[in-house]
């Protein structure tokens, strides 16, 4: 398909007409097209090439206050008409829900937004150049130290996508994106055990990526510093989260603040709007309008205009993250955070989530710890959003007298998310955007560390 | 019965107007570049899902997806290209992109003859899936679940129930002329209950399913059991104490706690990680990695199981692979690429999430064979420890072998008796080491109820796990309460 001209708006209008004809009272339709090219090397040799092209159409139809969602990749007009009619029939046998419906009119974007999400100069990066990027990153990692003896490889990927959206309120919108990513996973081997390191760079613009060599060296360093890790005894101690692990705390906070978790009663943040939920140094922003942001977009999954907002300001919970359905249920306004996978009803997600940088160098934060832990890796899913109970596997570096002393592993970090976020004492100044969540280094007062 | 069930091999050829000759041309051209192997993977999937919350079935959705993936392998290199437009031209383009991986260009196209279908198992002859049941009837089932769960205890505040069902028709054609096709039904019923008592709020989840007919949920009133178990877990956790932290004896209950094997052992034995030497188990076949009480297998041939397949996603019939025999490491899980490079046999474990992904070695149903001890005897043998009966998710770092999994229902064991419930217990350990500490294995092997999904390298596939009751002498428990507090 070619993505120019009136072809797509016409198709979307046609689908809206068909569902209306089949008895839908309201509807929205979304079309997403994408192409991607990925190339991987391992130990210097080409390992994989992957190329893809996809297009899918998503539909949400209402029959009064009942709704159904559907998606398809069959684009023949006859198949589409049948599919649209079946979706309407499905809505008719779905239970009426007093809160269901399209967003209130007037919430769609009024003006086009210049988000600069496309790298027109580079587009899809051809296999040879992609392989070269991956090779450079992996070579830098392998050359960084004699103990880097193996590798899970390096991969470079570029993709482009376009989304078209229309609803029966007369809104039509579209946007396109490109994205580029380079990752490398070297393995360090001390002779007594192996450790993997992983690092990556990603962005909407090819030129803005980190140099492959810098990515490789950082990945090697992350693998090397895990070698010779020991177990420690169970204790309570201050914990410093590096930017990657701190970002996972931030994502958990956003999940607890999202409408569906709240109205289901499955979040510890129920009824906490306006309350102190984190230390006073904590400011959390969701900004879908960030220029060239990996999560940026002009409208959300329901066509609602997006905006920059504080989720947490000076530790206070300022807003929840909502789509129109969860907003109506909670008697609030949508925040324009509907996230849409094509074939299902909207979910809620932050788009570009960040913890505003503070004033401390990460080194200063480490120095402030007498005895404690720097966490660099976390695994497992031990988070109960309903209570905030938190217990995850971790590894990192033990801190003695403000200095990084030795690596530790096979430990757990446990506590309650509420207490942990309230105990954030220091926020670093080392904010870097590599994904749609960014976080600087943070220090938490005291947490239970499970070991021997 | 639909035509796709009657003749899966004909399905794609008829649906997309393909001819055997066109498939032969695409594969022959791709192989012409001195590739070792080439396959085409066709997929057509339809899925429907219903969801209930706050006593209303307010979410219904359906999806149709289709596409073709072309893979070309040359030595240890893989080229993969896919498209959701299934036409001869698209396939030719995809084959060209994929075959760029074979570095020597310009070879003569190879003559390929599409042959007879591969013999596959018949593990799930399913005619009456939830997809064939009227939506209203399925909605009534969710309503009944809501009623039963709410009736369990006044502290039940909300019930979320969902029923999802899909049917995937696949066909693999490879450069050796082999053709394999399959129709893979799958369904799952999940119940989540939120309980609250003013002070605290807890969530309980239970569910089940498999490659089964709709009636599966009514046999022995399974649907009722799911509702009650989810409600019970939520309510029990309201009164749960904080889990202890530190190393202790852990007894795992039967069934779903088999996720331990999946994380601690299974991933580390997948062929790709071992060929590359990046797994903590690499090069250790024949070594003792578990107590002699432990025999662990991966078996994709169990009828109607969620993790079972008639043929894997490369067209190889699935099999039963012994991973650990009486404590000794015996085998790896292989797809074709890694089996060829390691000079081993494929084990029918080449799986992929969809046509948008190249296959890789994955587990099917992974479980430990039963031992001699009764579960009561095992509990009685523990002076102080943790009894974990249900788990949320788990994860492993295959390179250093460290794994983690989180208990969603666990109790303290005190003086040989199951005591009060504890919440928030995460278990962390070392894969090559944890099973050496197994000191008792129960005679009560159970497979899980059919809810597992495994993620690897961005691909999700349905899997099963199983375990008898086992006693592990010493595993780190991450709770919030320090020992002695």
The multimeric state of the shown protein is heterodimer
Low-confidence stretches of chain B: 1-6
Mean pLDDT over the residues of chain B: 91
Total strand count of chain A, please?
Answer: 21
**Backbone CA Rg of chain A:** 24 Å
What is the 3D form of chain B?
A: globular
How many H/I helical runs of chain B? 11
Structural class by helix and strand composition of chain B: alpha+beta
Describe this structure in words.
The complex is a heterodimer of chains A (452) and B (485). Chain A contains nine helices and 21 strands. Chain A has 452 residues and is an alpha+beta fold. Among the domains of chain A are: 127-158 and 177-224, PmbA/TldD fold (2-Layer Sandwich); 235-249 and 357-450, no CATH class. In chain A, a hairpin with a 2-residue loop joins strand 2 and strand 3. Chain B starts with a helix and ends with a strand. Chain B has two domains: 3-238, PmbA/TldD superfamily (PmbA/TldD fold); 242-482, no CATH class. Chain B has helices at 3-6, 8-15, 20-31, 88-99, 135-152, 222-238, 259-266, 271-275, 336-341, 375-380, 431-434; strands spanning 37-53, 56-74, 77-83, 156-174, 179-196, 201-210, 241-242, 244-252, 296-299, 320-325, 328-329, 350-351, 360-361, 365-368, 384-396, 402-414, 417-423, 426-430, 438-441, 446-447, 453-456, 459-462, 464-467, 470-478, 481-482. In chain B, the strands form five sheets. A six-stranded antiparallel β-sheet of chain B has the order 3-2-1-4-5-6. In chain B, strands 11-10-9-14-23-20 form a six-stranded mixed β-sheet, with helices on one face. In chain B, strands 8-15-16-18-24 form a five-stranded mixed beta barrel. The relative contact order of chain B is 0.14. With 485 residues, chain B is α+β, with helices and mostly antiparallel strands. Chain B is built from eleven helices and 25 strands. In chain B, strand 4 and strand 5 form a beta hairpin. Chains A and B meet through strand 2, strand 3, helix 2, strand 6 and strand 17 of A and strand 1, strand 2, strand 3, helix 4 and helix 5 of B. Strand 3 (66-72) of chain A pairs parallel with strand 2 of chain B, so a sheet runs across the interface.
């Amino acid at each position: 398909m070619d993505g120019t001209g009136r072809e797509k708006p016409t198709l979307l209008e046609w689908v809206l007409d068909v569902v209306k004809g089949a008895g839908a009272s309201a509807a929205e339709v979304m079309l997403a097209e994408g192409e991607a090219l990925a190339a991987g090397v391992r130990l210097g040799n080409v390992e994989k090439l992957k190329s893809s092209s996809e297009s899918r159409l998503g539909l949400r139809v209402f029959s009064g206050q009942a709704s159904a969602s559907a998606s398809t990749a069959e684009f023949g007009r006859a198949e589409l008409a049948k599919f649209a009619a079946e979706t309407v029939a499905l809505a008719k046998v779905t239970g009426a829900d007093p809160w269901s419906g399209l967003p209130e009119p007037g919430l769609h974007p009024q003006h086009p937004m210049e988000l600069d999400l496309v790298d027109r100069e580079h587009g899809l990066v051809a296999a040879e150049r992609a392989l070269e990027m991956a090779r450079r990153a992996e070579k830098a990692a392998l050359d960084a130290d004699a103990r880097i003896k193996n590798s899970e490889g390096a991969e470079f990927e570029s993709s482009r996508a376009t989304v078209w959206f229309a609803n029966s309120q007369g809104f039509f919108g579209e946007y396109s994106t490109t994205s580029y990513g380079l990752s490398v996973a070297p393995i360090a081997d001390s002779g007594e055990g192996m450790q993997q390191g992983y690092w990556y760079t990603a962005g909407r613009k090819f030129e803005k990526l980190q140099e492959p060599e810098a990515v490789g060296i950082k990945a090697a360093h992350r693998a090397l510093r895990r070698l010779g890790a020991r177990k420690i005894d169970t204790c309570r101690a201050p914990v410093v989260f590096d930017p990657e692990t701190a970002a996972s705390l931030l994502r958990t906070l956003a999940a607890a603040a999202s409408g569906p978790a709240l109205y289901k009663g499955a979040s510890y943040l129920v009824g906490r709007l306006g309350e102190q939920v984190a230390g006073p140094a904590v400011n959390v922003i969701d900004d879908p309008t960030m220029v060239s942001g990996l999560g940026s977009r002009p409208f959300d999954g329901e066509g609602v205009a997006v905006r920059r907002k504080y989720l947490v300001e000076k530790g206070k919970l300022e807003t929840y993250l909502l789509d129109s359905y969860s907003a109506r249920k909670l008697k609030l306004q949508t925040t324009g955070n509907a996230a849409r996978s094509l074939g299902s009803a909207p979910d809620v997600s932050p788009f570009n989530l960040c913890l505003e940088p503070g004033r401390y160098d990460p080194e200063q934060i480490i120095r402030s710890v007498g005895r404690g832990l720097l966490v660099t890796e976390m695994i497992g899913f031990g988070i109960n959003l309903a209570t905030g109970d938190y217990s995850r596997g971790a590894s990192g570096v033990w801190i003695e007298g403000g200095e990084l002393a030795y690596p530790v592993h096979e430990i757990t970090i446990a506590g309650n998310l509420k207490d942990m976020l309230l105990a954030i004492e220091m926020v670093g100044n080392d904010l870097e955007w590599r994904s749609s969540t960014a976080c600087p280094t943070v220090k938490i007062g005291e947490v239970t560390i499970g070991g021997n | 019965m639909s035509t796709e069930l009657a003749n899966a091999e004909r399905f794609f050829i008829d649906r997309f107007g393909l001819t055997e000759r066109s498939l032969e041309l695409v594969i022959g051209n791709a192989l012409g570049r001195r590739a070792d192997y080439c396959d085409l993977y066709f997929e057509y999937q339809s899925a429907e899902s219903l969801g209930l919350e706050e006593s209303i079935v307010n979410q219904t959705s359906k999806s149709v997806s289709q596409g073709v993936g072309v893979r070309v392998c040359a030595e240890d290199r893989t080229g993969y290209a896919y498209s959701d437009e299934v036409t001869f031209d698209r396939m030719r383009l995809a084959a060209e992109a994929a075959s760029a991986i074979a570095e020597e260009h310009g070879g003569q196209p190879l003559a390929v003859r599409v042959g007879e279908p591969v013999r596959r198992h018949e593990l799930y002859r399913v005619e009456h899936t939830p997809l064939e049941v009227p939506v209203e009837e399925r909605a009534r089932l969710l309503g009944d679940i809501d009623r039963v769960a709410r009736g369990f205890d006044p502290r039940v505040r909300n019930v979320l129930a969902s029923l999802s069902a899909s049917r995937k028709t696949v066909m693999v054609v490879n450069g050796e002329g082999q053709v394999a096709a399959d129709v893979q039904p799958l369904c799952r019923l999940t119940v989540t209950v939120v309980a609250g008592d003013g002070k605290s709020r807890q969530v309980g989840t239970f569910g089940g399913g498999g490659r089964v007919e709709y009636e599966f949920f009514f046999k022995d009133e399974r649907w009722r059991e799911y509702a009650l178990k989810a409600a019970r877990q939520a309510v029990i956790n309201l009164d749960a104490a904080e889990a202890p932290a530190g190393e202790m004896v852990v007894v795992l209950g039967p069934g779903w706690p088999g996720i331990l094997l999946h994380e601690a052992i299974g991933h580390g034995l997948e062929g790709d990680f071992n060929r590359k030497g990046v797994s903590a188990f690499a090069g250790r076949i024949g070594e003792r990695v578990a107590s002699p009480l432990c025999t662990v297998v991966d078996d994709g041939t169990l009828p109607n199981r969620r993790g079972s397949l008639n043929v894997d996603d490369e067209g190889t019939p699935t099999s039963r692979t012994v991973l650990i025999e009486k404590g000794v490491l015996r085998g790896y899980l292989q797809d074709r690429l890694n089996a060829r490079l390691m000079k081993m046999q494929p084990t029918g474990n080449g799986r992929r999430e969809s046509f948008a992904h190249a296959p890789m070695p994955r587990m099917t149903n992974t479980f430990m064979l039963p031992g001699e001890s009764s579960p009561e005897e095992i509990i009685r043998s523990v002076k102080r420890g943790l009894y974990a009966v249900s788990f949320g998710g788990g994860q492993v770092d295959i390179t250093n072998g460290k794994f983690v999994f989180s208990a969603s229902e666990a109790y303290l064991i005190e003086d040989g008796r199951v005591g009060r419930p504890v919440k928030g217990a995460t278990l962390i350990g070392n894969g090559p080491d944890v099973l050496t500490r197994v000191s008792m294995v129960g005679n009560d092997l159970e497979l899980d109820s059919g809810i597992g999904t495994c993620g690897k390298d961005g691909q999700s596939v349905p899997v099963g796990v199983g375990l008898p009751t086992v006693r592990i002498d010493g595993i780190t428990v991450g709770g919030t309460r320090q020992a002695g507090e």
